[in-house]
Amino acid sequence: MSQDKRTGLIHHPYVPPAGFEAVAPGVHKASTVVFPNVAALQARNWRSKTGYTYGLHGTPTTFTLEERIATLEGGLQTLLVPSGLAAITLVDMALLKQGDEVLIPDNAYGPSKELARNELAGWGITHRFYDPMDARGLAALIGPQTKLLWLEAAGSVTMEFPDLPALVKLARERGVKVALDNTWGAGIAFNPFDLTPGGDALGVDVSVQALTKYPSGGGDVLMGAVTTRDEALHLILKFCHMRMGWGVGGNDVELVLRSLPSLALRYEAQDAASRTLAAWWSQRREVVQVLHPALPGSPGHECWQRLCTRAAGLFSVVFNERYSPEQVYAFIDALRIFKIGYSWAGPVSLAVPYNLKGMRHEPAYSGTLVRFSVGLEAVGDLIHDCQQALHALGP
Ligand SMILES: *Cc1c(COP(=O)(O)O)cnc(C)c1O
What we know:
This protein is an alpha/beta fold. The chain contains 13 helices and twelve strands. The protein has a seven-stranded mixed beta sheet, with helices on both faces. A five-stranded mixed beta sheet has the order 8-9-12-11-10, covered by helices on one side. The chain is globular.
């Protein structure tokens, strides 16, 4: 009996020839992965990238991106998660247990602090926020319960650049694991697993990135990565990742793979433009401080200089207190090229106001702060845009 056409559409005899080679990696999508026989199904290996078990746990496409991100970070293993925030969550969940304490910089990515304040606290995991510019103060905070130290360089919004090697060394000496939110550095500005090139190898234990930012570069994908150099630590994270059921879709991975080759070029271009714009702002009397780690006088500039030659296209300005928040908002509303919105490292320049009261334990600035993310527009147009919008600031 000949086979029904409906079955033939699914179990078709045609097999395309093997050996197709193209510039872009293939996009594989699956929940179900099929096995040639029961023995192969029973022998499936979850641990390493030697085969496939289930779409959630890896496809040729996700394995390819994982390997490329591991190379970018200078690490050995990478796990992909659905967002940058999920990457932070994975590290916290895998490495912290009831009774443990985590130390988070006061200038960390805000939702990371919220995660500790709300979810972690509910599971009996305590946290303390520390001043990343005060290594001695941090040393005094580390106790027997401290199991994890978070780092971020530069810090969110206020852009302080900490002495990363000193902070890592301090944690190392006390047996505390170190995780870095490396979204800003993106694997370009410095190597998180080798912070003292030429010296004694000193690096973080885990580096996370929001691939949403530079690796995507398009403002259209959400994804995160967790990278390690230590196999045992990787497996702890990997098993937590599997149990949590965090996977990423093949189409999203495709977008990041497509953007990755231009990552370094975009980073350089946005770095150059943001330094030009930051220098322009530092001449303006409306602002009292420009916060950009590559700018002399910005907090942690010397630490940035010791470790990096490049900086992300991100900086903040603090307006003189004589301008009310509403006046600063009017300036932002008057911008034409800069759009108003969160995230960064995409093609479109962005501006967001912040009030540091409530965001920081001891805010260093009392004026309204505006964080700029520089896109890929011509920098002359961006300067002109800021200049014309300043008229809306008022007297
Ligand atoms: C954006 C960002 C995140 C979170 O990334 P999402 O993909 O938006 O969840 C984490 N850390 C830093 C420093 C970020 O800028």
